[in-house]
Structures are given as structure tokens and as C-alpha cells.
Amino acid sequence: MSNVQVLERTTRRVPLGLQVWDIATATHLIEGLEIQVTSGARATGTRAATNRSGVYYAFNVPRLQQFELNEDDIDAWKTQRRPYKIEVRDPAGRFLPFVFDADLPIRDLMTWLTSRISPPQPFIVPSDQSSVIQQIPLFSSVSRPVPDTLAVVRAELREIDTNRPAAWSLLKVSIDTTVLGIGLADQKGRVAILFPYPKRSSPVLPSTPPATNAFRWDIELTAYYTPWQTAVPVPDALDLAYLVKQFDSPRKLIQSMEFPTQALSVQVLEYRKPLTVRTEISATKKPSSFLFVNTQPDMP
Asked: Which terminus of the chain has fewer Cβ atoms in its 10 Å neighbourhood, N or C?
């Protein structure tokens, strides 16, 4: 075999690399997402690819071809940065769509710099101000199949005073001060919170251990929501900037339509039984179709 002489070597730099983070299963290995990078008012952009490590990366980003091919410009990471819009969608319908702004190029993996994130359950509201992860959060849709190993709490959120869907609101599930999971409502106010079951309490011997399907937990639900202005159309994909804004807007969930000042009581979660939470219509405890949210800023 003859020797091969390399006359020229070309290195191509990647202006965008990021990892997503599935909040329900605590993993970044998610395939099949469509991540689009666009610049300004351009309708078309660049589709990101993914590698075996679960990193999504983009080549041929508009207005950054010179950066990608000119490896000798060591300051290009700073001098050629421009604003872009990144849109994340899941054709399989497992996760909710969202968008966010980013200045590209970015050296190493993109870090979504918010002080509200801490693995393995990224969103703990409120949380340690110093906690940060690199991955971009993924929220489960209501149509996502639920594995047997995960619990699920469902609701359809509505504003108590307008009856409008509480679109893109956050709903947190916790026991005492321990956050079990957090979900994001879709454009119609529908939410599914998937999370691992809490630890089972050890039986006190010599009593008979409970059956594996007889475990129950008292859980609390908390909503975070910033009402949409009437003149503003609700987007079909949430901007992550709006998501962060909601962390400072806790809202009371309503127990009964007869007593709208009464907060939602503790709910009972049973092992391998989906829990759907609704507001009561009357003292007869007949459930409504929705879980109503107080839109007023103050909480008693």
C-alpha cells in the first residue's frame, strides 16, 4: 500500500452545541427532536443534528459560515456573535414545543443560565440560587406514554375569573418541602406531571408488609402562572423567558367553586394509579372538568 500524503486539512467549527434534559426521567439521551436555528426575520434556518452522546449540533448557521471555516480567527467566538432564535419541537409528541433566544457562536455546550435549575430534577421552585445545569429542559406532553415506573398527575388548568385556559402555567408536585416533579401546561392548559414514585415507607415489624400496589402518599400541588394579556395571542410554543418569569408568580389552586378563597387540599397519590385533579363544583364534592387557578397576585 502506497503512502498517502495529506496536502491540506480543513477544520470546521460548530457554532452551536446543546443537550436537552428530560425532567421526568432525568436523562439527556433524547432522540428525534427537531431543533431549528433561525436568524432575525428569516423563515428558514438550520436544522441541528445529534450524535451518539445526545448532543445536538448545528452547521451552516446563517451568517456564520465564515466563523465555521476560519479556524485561525481565535477571537471569532466573541467578535462574530449574533442573536438567533432556537426552536425545539418533538414530531413524536412526547414533549412540549418551546423557543429561546441565544447569541451564537457559543464555545463548548450551551448552558441555559438560570439559577432555578438543579439536577436530577432541574426545576425546584424556589431553589438554590447557585445551581445550574447545562441541558435545555424538556416538559412532558399530555399524550406522552407513561412508563409503569413513573407516577403521573394530570389536570386541565383554567383561570377562575375568566374561565380561559391557564396556558403554559407550571404545576409543582411535592411532599412537605420535597419536590417530586414539575410539569408545564400546554397551550390549552392541559398538564401531565411525570415523576418517579416517592420512597415507600418501611413497615414496622412484626406487622404484615403492605401489598406492592397498596402504597399511598399525600401530595401538595402548587401553581406558577403569569396571566396572558387579552390582546396578546397565546403562542403555540413557549418562550423560555416567559417560563422563568413565572417562577416569581405563585398562584392558589381552588378547592371548590362555592368557596373560591379556599385553597386546594392535599391530594392522595396511589401506586400505579394516575391522579387527575379537579376543582369541586359544590359541597356535594362533584368534580368539575377543570382545576381552577387564582389569577390574583396575592396569596393568603
From this structure: N
**Residue that terminates a domain, selected from 88, 104, 137:** 137
Percent of the chain with pLDDT over 90: 49
Query: Model's pTM, two decimal places?
Result: 0.84
Question: Considering its fold, how many domains does the chain have in total?
Answer: 2
**C-alpha cell at position 200:** 415507600
Q: Burial letters for 186-220: b for 16+ Cβ neighbours within 10 Å, e otherwise?
A: beebbbbbbbbebeeeeeeeeeeeeeeeebebebb
Cα 153 to Cα 35, 141, 195: the distances in Å are 28, 12, 9
Rounded Cα distance between 266 and 121, Å, is: 22
Yes or no: say if 21 and 122 are a contact pair by the CB < 8 Å rule. Answer: yes
DSSP bridge pairs for 49? 57
d(CA 163, CA 189): 11
pLDDT at 202 over 80: no
Q: pLDDT category, 66, cuts 50, 70, 90?
A: confident
Under 8 Å between Cβ of 122 and 114: no
Check whether residue 163 and residue 75 sit in a common domain.
Answer: no
Question: Which residues, 6+ apart, have CB-to-CB distance to 229 below 8 Å?
Answer: none
CA dist., res. 54 & res. 180, Å (int)? 25
